TrEMBL record:
Coiled coil: none annotated. This is Metallo-beta-lactamase domain-containing protein. It comes from Streptomyces glaucescens. It holds the Pfam family Lactamase_B_2. Residues 19-204 form the Metallo-beta-lactamase domain.
């Protein structure tokens, strides 16, 4: 199996000859955010058998990016997304399924399990609390956990279950992280709870608010390296793969 990080929360997980794309975001600019590091993902990044969306925030559910997916691509979105985000209804070429924690979806040789996340899953700024924030576990040759956006919660290891690889958010797109997020320190704590064989830090070092380059710039540049350092202290048995934008890794998995 192979994992490619395209930036922010967008990854390709290729397992058992099935390509799973997480939270597709292929924009140079999104509202007040600008892509500051890493080239825009190439058209090959748009290629997927299944795309999963963790929650309804526009940097995770981005309609123009989803529109680039090939006709017939399977798309999993949180329950209630079609009602909350009318633009999804225009994506008639995609095979869309609303899911909630506990659901399982088969895709070729994979099973994709839907697990809870602790995050405000609304379509901001005014959306009602109708759609859950989700994580996904892709089970094939490996078990790969994509956390989406989440805070720590007591039942995380129990809800996620045993995994080989964890794709964990370690930062954000602004100088301050609100409730329901993992920074490098909390992500290292999550890693210690989950105890996978490997981890890849994501959701940092890609987008930043326009005009705020000088405001707490370490929150943009350093979360990946900080996660590597803290993971070595708190979960020394886990191999952490620090990827650049567009880079891939083939993590070791249990046989």
């Amino acid at each position: 199996m192979e994992i490619t990080w395209w930036g922010h929360a967008t990854c390709t997980v290729e397992d058992s000859d099935v390509r799973v794309l997480t939270d597709p975001l292929f924009a140079r600019r999104l509202a007040h955010l600008r892509r500051r590091r890493g080239a825009l993902p190439p058209p090959d990044a748009w290629r997927a058998d299944v795309a999963v969306v963790s929650h309804l925030h526009a940097d995770h559910l981005h309609i123009p990016s989803l529109a680039r997916l090939a006709p017939g691509t399977r798309l999993l979105v949180p329950r209630g997304a079609l009602r909350a985000v009318p633009g999804l209804r225009r994506l008639t070429r995609l095979r869309m399924t609303e899911v909630a924690p506990g659901d399982q979806v088969k895709a070729g040789g994979l099973v994709i399990r839907v697990v809870p996340a602790r995050h405000d899953g609304r379509r901001l700024p005014l959306g009602p609390h109708r759609s859950p924030a989700l994580g996904y576990v892709v089970e094939g040759e490996a078990r790969t956990y994509f956390a989406g956006d989440t805070g720590l919660f007591d039942s995380m290891a129990e809800e996620v279950g045993p995994v080989d690889v964890a794709l964990l958010p370690v930062g954000g797109w602004g100088p301050y992280l609100g409730e329901g997020h993992l920074d490098a320190g909390r992500a290292a704590q999550a890693l210690a709870r989950l105890a996978p064989r490997s981890a890849v830090p994501v959701h940092y070092g890609t987008y930043w608010p326009i005009g705020m380059d000088a405001v707490r710039p370490h929150e943009f540049h350093s979360p990946g390296e900080e996660f590597v350092r803290l993971a070595a202290e708190r979960a020394p048995g886990v191999a952490v793969h620090l990827l650049g934008h567009g880079e891939s890794v083939r993590p070791e998995v249990a046989r």
